[in-house]
Amino acid sequence: MNDSPQHSPLAGFTVGVTAARRADELGALLARRGATVLHAPALRIVPLSDDSQLLAATKELIDHAPDVVVATTAIGFRGWVEAADGWGHGEALLMRLRGVELLARGPKVKGAVRAAGLTEHWSPSSESMAEVLEKLLADGVAGRRIALQLHGEPLPGFVEALRAAGADVVLVPVYRWLPPADPAPLDRLLDAVVARGVDALTFTSAPAAASLLARAEENGSAADLLAALGHDVLPACVGPVTALPLQARGVDTVQPERFRLGPLVQLLCRELPARARTLPVAGHRVEIRGHAVLLDGEPRAVPPAGMALLRALARRPGWVVPRAELLRALPGAGRDEHAVETAMARLRAALGAPRLIQTVVKRGYRLALDPAVGSKYGE
Question: Residue 356: pLDDT above 60?
Answer without folding.
Answer: yes
